Amino acid sequence: MSRILLLSLAFCLLFCVNLFSADLYLLGIDSREACELSSQVVEYAHGTIDGKFIVILEQDQTKRLKHPDIKLELLQSECRMENKYLVIKEAGEAGPASISIPSVYASSSGHRVAELEKSSIDVLSREGYMALPLLERKTPIYYYPQLCPAPALEDYPSDTLAEMVNSDSLAANISRMMAFFTRFTPCDSNRIAREWIAGKLASYGYTDITFDRFLATRESMDVYDEPAWNILCRKIGTEKPDEWIMIGAHYDSYSSNYCTNYAPGADCNASGVSAVLELARLFYNYDFKRSLMFIGFGAEEQMMDGSNHLAQELFDDAIDIEILVNLDVISYEEDDVPDFCISCIRQSTYCQVFIDAISRLNNLIPVKMYNYLDDDGMFHDLGYQTLAMWEYTYHPYMHTPNDILSTLDTSYMRKIVQLAATSLPIIDAAADPVQPMVYDVGDGDGLKVTWDPCFGDFTYRVIYGVYKYQLSDTMDVAPPDCFAYIDGLVEGQQYYVTVLGYPPDGYPQIGYISEPGRPLSIPRAPDNVRIEVDSSRIILNYNANRELDFNHYRILRKVAAGSWVELESNYTDTFYVDFTPEPYFTNYYVVLAYDNDLNESDSSSIVSAIPATFDRGILLVDETQTGSYLPSETEQSNFYAAAFGDSLYITHKIDNPDTPLKKSLAGQYLPLFYVDDDNIQHLLAGSLDSLDWYLQYETDFFLAGWRTIFAITGQTSFYPGSFFRDNLGLASIAENVLSDFDGATGVNGWPDLEVRNDTYYHAPLPNIDIF
After folding, report:
1. Burial of 755 (0-12, 13-18, 19+ CB in 10 A)
2. Are 355 and 381 in contact (CB under 8 A)?
3. What is the DSSP letter of 490?
4. What are phi and psi of 36, to 5 degrees?
5. Is residue 305 helix, strand or coil?
6. What phi and psi, each to the nearest 5 degrees, are found at residue 138?
7. pTM score, two decimals?
């Protein structure tokens, strides 16, 4: 058990207010392996933009996120999260051209990460923008492999549903929604409107209809904790009842913040609600394998409170959602060009099913977008697949009393509803995508392919080629086989391979996953070699070689300028422990792979470490400043020499983020003193991983600094698993901002602490941490 001493004020003569916590990044993930690594490093993100995660990272975290399929884009250093917002344009509300949004990132779709004060938020809200605080968003780290659209089929039986979409029904629903005068959330007419929607669904035959209560708030609309409801109507699937297809639209409206003002909301969003009702009518007598949920979102105009609440509720209950379709403002056509927007951010294959249907049904012109619209936002952030459709040109009188039926084009709207009517049954009936696994046969011209899941009554087609999105060669595999061999390939050439499954009845996959493979006659060098320091041991890990003719590994070690020594000549595991590393020296390692013919691979990357012995005395980690009125290096050295007296100690200087404390260094010494007198950067953040490791052993640790922890974490409660809770026993942290700290009383043998007050810089101090 480690012994830890924490001194929150030491060696510091300066004071300044610094709300630095860490740096703001966009995190892009392009593989499962990258997702797994990111999930280990980042507990959660703060929303998404452009299909990337908005994350706060400390210096040590960015170094751990080194992977070819991880893309990090720095947005802001030393970020204050309490004033960061995701700013979204509301449908139909572009805002004045002169409005200035202090953005740290802007997407092509108009969404922004912005730094805002309270007064700016109010202005943006009045001009038709939503500002969502990033600090409140907790988005899990997830990854969906990008599906490539599968080839078109000759027959789509569900297309017959398209002709059943009725323009008169759509218009009648909009007209009835307008008759409620306003559907503004606090108004009694909002209640009457949702009861009418529920009654309409019941008239089609649905019986599982419920209201989902939540509280809505939007200060700029004078709405504070107003009770509101989502409308939920369920139809249970015939084969996959626990998987859901969700179709939603918000039913509230506004033209001002009062219940006495006319807010017909014909386009926004009686049109979307009318479409949901029409789809519910068509789908009642149509068999779906998956369950359906028709949703009327409440309080969309109050920062999407209804959809945010429902998405979080479903996520917490681990509900399996195949796709959420959001319909908002789908009935205004400015001219004779029938263009509309369609968005699938991470998985464009779903959108492609809708777009492919256009050539069979009507003359719509799709415009692909790459951000969510509104009520689909929280669903997307929580990792669900979403699709949104809306008009390309917004209604000029949206959110006014002139948003009425006579200004709309229900024939244009009908075409959009037709896409959903025929495409959702295709998505439901399609076979699930399979995950191919590609292995090198080892002869230089062949690959083996297996896949999961594999069904004994399916016919499978293996498709491959040298271009990921232009696969040209095919091979059919009859049931019940679940593998195939591809030969006649070019050695060293990378190929992409996918597998399509064709069930005996129903649709094949709507998309496929392609995986790379490269035929070689010699083994690949072991990759992703990782090294860990342990007490008197060094541990190696590396990825397994996937050649089918792989035989064994060979592990070599050397010290400094010495020769390579063989540790293992015939090793088959991917985990190796060296029990006899040279103490106090850097030990270097490489791994080689061999096939059945004893062909040797190139060597792996060289990794190195020094074993932990904890016996070389005191290590002083010195993170101090110099210059101006601060103590010079000589004065600091004299101070430490006086403090440690006759004790021998080694100093490790940390003066930039690239020199954090390493395990190989820390593990040689006991005890460890860390002195943070850098009140600007607080580079301790970069060493937390090594310190967390150090404190697992029987060690002694002393931490001294001013604002050291608060500057890294901000004011927060520490969760189990965090460094400061697990190792320092801290449950929370606050800060006394007054300049009134002039001393402390020592207990348990510790001396009293006094602050000098004889000069301007020696006076009662502010910003003292409270644990």
Report:
1. middle
2. no
3. P
4. -65, -45
5. helix
6. -125, 100
7. 0.75
